[in-house]
Amino acid sequence: VQLLESGPGLVKPSQTLSLSCTVSDGAIVGSYYSWSWIRHTVGKGLEWMGGLSFSVFYSPALNSRLVIFTNASNNQFHLELTSMVPEDTGVYYCCRSAKGWGVNCGSWGQGIQVTVSS
């Protein structure tokens, strides 16, 4: 499986971040894997944000700002994070895990740098 993140590298404070993860050689819908978004920020290090399998789960810390959904027609899953602040600056990864939720993914995208700045 291959995963590739895409989206803007720069967002302004208060804006919504929208990222996509395109998955190759592995179907998202109907699989037994968990598909997650993870980020690495200066303040929190590596942080599991949320993900989807047969349902969608979010980190309690981000639950009020985060939406994750899939588009089965093009084998992508997406992240929308509202009310961006400079502390959200970091590298955002999508990944696949056979072990549920958390940062212990077996397959990772290359990551995308996101900077929050006016």
Any overview of this molecule?
The chain is mostly beta strands. Helices cover 0% and strands 52% of the residues. It contains no helices and eleven strands. It has strands spanning 2-6, 10-11, 17-24, 34-41, 45-52, 56-58, 66-71, 76-81, 90-97, 107-108, 112-116. Strands 2, 4, 5, 6, 9, 10 and 11 form a seven-stranded mixed β-sheet that branches. Strand 4 and strand 5 form a beta hairpin. It is globular, with a radius of gyration of 13 Å. The termini are far apart. The mean pLDDT is 95.
Alpha plus pi helix count: 0
Q: Sheet bearing the most strands, described?
A: 7 strands, mixed
Structural class: mainly beta
**What shape does the CA trace take?**
globular
Tell me how many strands there are: 11
Contiguous uncertain segments of 5+ residues: none
Order of helices and strands: EEEEEEEEEEE
Strand content: over 45%
SSE layout and pairing:
Elements: E1 2-6, E2 10-11, E3 17-24, E4 34-41, E5 45-52, E6 56-58, E7 66-71, E8 76-81, E9 90-97, E10 107-108, E11 112-116
Describe, in short, the structure shown.
By secondary structure, the protein is mostly beta strands. It has strands spanning 2-6, 10-11, 17-24, 34-41, 45-52, 56-58, 66-71, 76-81, 90-97, 107-108, 112-116. It starts with a strand and ends with a strand.
Give keywords.
single chain, 118 residues, mainly beta, 11 strands, 0% helix, globular
